[in-house]
Structure formats: C-alpha cells, structure tokens
Amino acid sequence: MNLKLYTKEFGYNLRLAYPIILSMIGHSLVGFVDNVMVGQIGPVELAAVSLGNSFMFVAMSIGIGFSTAITPMIAENYGKDRIEENKNVFYSGLFLCTLLGVILFVILYFSKPLIALMGQPPEVVALAGPYMDIVALSLIPLIMFQAYKQFADGESETKYSMYTTVVANIVNVVFNYIFIFGFWIFPALGVIGAAIGTIASRIVMLIMIHYMLKHHDKFKVYFEHFSFNYVKAVVIKKIMSIGTPSSMQMLFEVALFTGAIWLSGSLGTFEQAANQIALSISAMTYMVGMGLSVAAMIRVGNCKGMDDYKEMRIVARSIFLLAAMFATFFALVFIVFHQFLPKIYFDLDNTAQLEANSEVILIASKLLLIAAVFQLSDSLQIVVLGALRGLQDVKIPMVLTFVAYWMIGFPTSVYLGLFTDLKAIGIWIGLLTGLTFASIFLYLRFDILTKKRMKRQ
User: Fold this and answer.
1) Is 8 in a helix, a strand, or coil?
2) What share of the chain has pLDDT > 90, as a percent?
3) Nearest to 86 by CA among 235, 293, 308, 213
4) Strand partners of residue 183
C-alpha cells in the first residue's frame, strides 16, 4: 500500500474534521460534567443519572441518527452546486427533526414507569425518575439543533457546531454549579440540578446556531423568504428512506451500551456506577471517531456527487487510517492511566463514602482496560459507517450492525456478565466482541460496494 497516497489527505481531512470532533466532544462534555459533578455527591446519585441517561441515549440515538440523512444529501448537492435543492433538504430536514424531537419527548416522558420494572436498585430508581422528567424535554432543542448542524456540515462548514457546543458547555457548568450544589438564593437540587443544566445548555445551542447561520453570507439565501413551500413531500420521503435505517444503525449501537448499563445495574449499584464512569470516559474518545465519521460522510458524499469512485476510495481509506492512529493513541492512554482516570469522579476526602467510592474505582479501572482494547474496532466501525452513509447506503449496514451488536455482542455480554464470575468485565468483553464484528462487516461492505461502482464507470 502506498501510504503517501493516503497521508497526503490527512491535512484536509483534519481541517474538516477537527471542528466536528470538538463539537462532538462538547456534546460528551455535557454528560461528562454532569457525571463528575453528581459523582461528588455519591455513587447512588451517579448511578441514578446513568439509569436516566440510558433512556435518553436510546431516544437521542434515534433522533441524531435520523438527522445524519441530511448531511450526505446536502454534500451531494453541494458537489453539484445545487442551492435550491439544498434549500428543500434543509427545510424538510428541520421540519422532520422538530416533529421527531416532540414525538421522542412524549414517548420518553411516558416510558418513565419502565424504570421501576427493570430490577434496578430502588434508591437509584427513586432519583432517576424526576431526573428524566426534565432532561427528556431537552430532546426537542437538541434534535432541532442537529438539523442545523447536519446542514452546515454538508456544506463543509463544520466550525459552527463547535462554537455552539463550547458556549453550551459553559452554560451547563454554570447551571450545574448553581442547581446541583446550591448557590445564593437557589437551593441544592442534586440530580435535578444536573437536568436543569442540560436543558438550558441545549436551548442555548439551538438559538446560537440559528443566529450564526442566519447572519453568515454563505447561508443568508437559505433564511430569506421562509416558506413551508420548501418542505417537499419527495424530499421528506428521501430523508426518511436514508434517515430511518441510519437511526436504527445508531440505535443498535447505543442500545448495546444501554443494555450494558441495565445489566450492570442488575449486578448492583457499584457495578452500575463503575460502568457509567468507563462509558463516560470512552465516550470522549469515541467522539473523535464520530467527527472523522462525519468528515468521511461529507467527502464521500462530495465524490458521489462528482461520480469519482477512485478518489472516493482514497479519501475514505485516508480517514480510516487516521481513525486507527487516533484509536491506538487513546488505547495507550487508557492502559497507562486506567487506575487514575476513575478517581476524578469522586471526592476522595469524603471518608463517609471512601469504601464505596474505592470499590467503584477498582471496578471502573478494570473496565477501562477492556475499553482500551476496543478503541480500534469502535473507531473503525463508526468511520466506515460514515463513509457508507456518504454513499447513501444504509439498509444493508443496518442489518450488519444488528447482527454484530444484537446477535453476537449482547448475548456475549449477558452470558459472561450474568452467568460467569467475570461480571462487569464480562459485559464489556461482549461490547468488544460486537464492535469488532461490526467493524469487519462494515469495512467489507464498503470495499465491495465501491469496487463494483468503479467497474461501472
């Protein structure tokens, strides 16, 4: 393999991807900050946020996954300089994302009683319900924001979502501090305070990205003379045909990790809290893969618009290689710091909670070693999936991810976690197994599909 053929693309790929990566990390930081600040109260509160967010993550995966259909359609039109078509895609996508946000909020709100039926510790369930009441509402501004973000990404303007998430995280930290611990006239609300910070930050994100795009010269044409006439039935149908399988792909993966949360909760509060810590840390590195995945989606979509499949394979493989390099670096970080990283979630000077906190830290440090191993497969599967979305190939990948995660990965987690002495470690070995098979299946799909299209040229 001629490495120079691929490494010469690194510069442009990174310039395109870094704002997306920072934006994605910003999304994760909202949850990371919530976990760290709530963890200062105790492991029960941390487990409650974990349980509530397990429902949120499922709903978010559907909404965010659906919104990804907007980017490849915009990118293909952008490659052909079709402004009117992109206007139709933007307005139709925003309409669908708003509607979906409302539907998911209603479903999540009324699914709250399911928490009590899942065999979770009762003290955790008591705190998780009220937390969900508030944080579920944040789905509406979050998924509307995704429509704006995916539109801007498709036009290769990836920095605006980065700016909004930076501001949103500042808002989240300030509101968390005020409402979790109490400040001035505001009482300490614990986990409810974390939910208030989350919804406030997501409302700010939506308002800010709308304002920035509306006043940018490149996008002014899209905001002039707003009319529902730009919401086209044929465009809605195409977005749904791409977005529905895409949302299922993301749902299958997120549900796998959500299943790990529930399985860990059935083992006990300590295991669930440790699982949340390892997931929270892993999510930060996963966002680098997510950012590169969007870059792959954009560049592959552009190449599709120009019918250049030879260049497409070079561009895609360049991003795959870049993702593998980042994943290797993160794996080494996890191995070296696996005992230190979980400690940042707790107040180690709190002698009343010292024994409980120490047990959670011990379990989490072992899980991070498993997380180190699956950095490569996790990163590769998401960037290859992004390339396939750029090709607007979503139905077969949907089936492949279902098989990898739910016919291979999750059964492995159940068996090793519940029926062997591995417990939480066994659950994470199942995650590793599912992600590894997904990365292999998806890469083979991309390789076969692009070779076929090259031969047709």
Assistant:
1) coil
2) 20
3) 235
4) 186
Alpha carbons 264 and 252: distance in angstroms, whole number: 18
Output phi, psi for 231, to 5 deg: -85, 100
Give the pTM: 0.76
Spatial CA neighbour of 13 closest among 308, 321, 219, 287: 321
Q: CA 402 to CA 395: how far, in whole Å? A: 11
Helix (H) or strand (E) run with residue 373 in it: helix 354-373
- Cα–Cα distance, 137 to 367 (Å, whole number): 32
Residue 195: burial class (beta carbons within 10 Å; 0-12, 13-18, 19+):
buried
The pLDDT value given to residue 241: 86
147 alpha-carbon distance from chain centroid: 15
Got the DSSP string for 21-88?
HHHHHHHHHHHHHHHHHHHTT-HHHHHHHHHHHHHHHHHHHHHHHHHTTHHHHHHHHHHTT-HHHHHH
Q: Could you read off the pLDDT of 412-424 as tens digits, one per residue?
A: 999 999 898 888 8
CA 252 – CA 244 distance, rounded (Å)? 12
Q: What type of residue sits at position 421?
A: D
Question: Does the pLDDT value for residue 291 go beyond 90?
Answer: no
Cα of 60 vs its chain's centroid, Å: 8
Residue 293 near residue 383 (C-beta atoms within 8 A): yes
Structure tokens at 370: 């498993």
**Cβ atoms 431, 374 nearer than 8 A:** yes
Straight-line distance from the first to the last Cα atom of the chain, in angstroms, rounded to the nearest whole number: 23
Please say whether the beta carbons of 49 and 131 come within 8 A. yes
Q: Contact 91/170 with Cβ under 8 angstroms?
A: no
Q: What angle do CA 267, 270, 276 make, to 5 degrees?
A: 95
Compute CA distances 380 → 179, 370, 385, 427, whole Å: 39, 17, 8, 21
- Range list of H helices, 136-232: 139-154, 159-181, 191-214, 220-223
